[in-house]
Amino acid sequence: MVVIYICFHHLDAILLVLISISAFMVSSRPIATHPEDHVAATSLVLKSSDGEKFEVKLQVALQSEAIRQMIVDGGFSNEIELSFPNITGVIMAKVLEYCNKHVDYDGAVNNLTAVEELKAFDTQYVNVHYETLFKLILASNELKIKGLLDLVSGKIADMIKGKEVEEIREMFNIKQGSCADHSTKKQYVQGNAWAFQ
Description:
Elements: H1 2-9, H2 11-28, E1 43-47, E2 53-57, H3 58-61, H4 65-74, E3 81-83, H5 89-104, H6 112-125, H7 130-143, H8 146-160, H9 165-171, H10 182-191
Parallel strand pairs: 1-3
Antiparallel strand pairs: 1-2
C-alpha cells in the first residue's frame, strides 16, 4: 500500500517531468515530413546483415519511418546506402515484398477491387512459418513499418487464440526450461511479498 501511495502521491511530478522531456525531445529533432526534399535520389540501397544489397525506389523505402528519419538526419546528396545489421537478406526481401505491394495500393481505399486484392495479398503474405513471422516482427519494429507490424502481430495473435499454454509451447517449439517455470515465479512472489500486498 505504501508503494502505491508514493506512486500516486508523486504522479503529478512524474507526469510533469515526462511531459517536459517529451517536449524537449520532440522540439530538438527535425520532423521528417518530406525526405524527398532532402535528396535528389529516386532510389536507395539497403544492405542486410549478410551483405546482400537491395536497390529500392525511394517511395517504397519511405514506408519505413526509420528510413525516413535516416534520410532527413543523414545529409545525403545523391547516393544513399543504409545498412541494417539486424535484418538478414531473406527477411529484408520479404519486408520489401510487402512494401512494394502496399506502395502500389497506397490511396486506393475507394477502389473495392484494389482493397480486396490487398487483403488477399496480406493473407497469403503471413502464411509462413512462425520463425519467419517472429523475424518479420523484429524487422518491422526496427524499420518502424506500422502496417507490417500490425499485420504480422495479428497473425500470431490468431495462431495462439484459444490455445492452452502447452499447445502454444508445442506450436512454437518452446521448451519447458526456456521460460521461468512455475516454481521460480512462486519463489519470486514469496521473496517479494511486500510488493504484492
